[in-house]
Please model this.
Amino acid sequence: MRENQFIYKNKQLLILIIILLFIVSFVVVLARYVTNNVSDFFLRSKEFYFYSDKLEANTAVYQIDNWSGVDDYSIIINMNSRLNNLKATSYDIGYNITYNCTTDNAICQLSKQSGTIYSNTNTDFFTLTITPNTQLDTGDKVTVEIEATSTTEYTKKLKGRFTLVVGKENVTYEITDAANNPYMDLRITNTLSYYTVREQFVVDDTTYQVNKKIDIDTYLSLSPENQEKCSSAIVTIGFDPNVVLIDMTNEIYREATNIHTTTIAGKTYINEFTVTVDAISSKSLRFYKVDTTHNYSYPNSSNSMVLTINSI
Model:
């Protein structure tokens, strides 16, 4: 009987400890939330706006998959001193930048170690370039932490953690944008090292069947006519013209095929098209934003994209 009572009391004590730990953790998180919001409210009352498209007060976290692990990777960090289109800081905001490569398989370089967000533009930017310093294999990771700290009368820190994962040959996408930019740029990177035959042809008694993969040297040895029958990556881009509009003067767009349109208020707008991207290369396309206040950067903390992209 005494043994059962002892076990029962121990169970009660364990449950009580768990409940107390939960309450303490909740209070700590709540206190941090309240402190951050009170601090932000105070800074806003002083017309101090210190923001970034990729860094946040509570550390924005990003993961970029399918990095080649060979080429440099540049991360452009846009800074601004705007609350919205109507409210902006009327004085210059200086800031310092630090970074920490948490792994030793890459070298990180900043375009500058400090910057100033001038009141006449309310924007500034800097670039972090990541260069592998050893042979990286599929699955290897490089993690970099970036911190920007204001150096004016009011102090605020913005942080971000970026993890680059070396993946298999693939087609990847990146959108460079910032709030109040009139346009955004889409960059398509193709790390595939081969071409695929899309239409059968014969060269010197050798038949190249549909879906046959050929290396770059073989592709370059083909006649222009037969090269037209091969492609590395075929990328189809869809979008809502109520949100973004393609820059039709872009050279890459002028080579587009399978162009689809939609009618809005009696006017015809392009809403989908297809482009090809050569092996081991990239292409950039510009889109104009209907609402410039939005920031459509990708990758982002939620990894949501304003465009619909499919590739084969």
Summary: The two ends are 72 Å apart (CA to CA). Residues 24-38 have pLDDT under 50 and may be disordered.
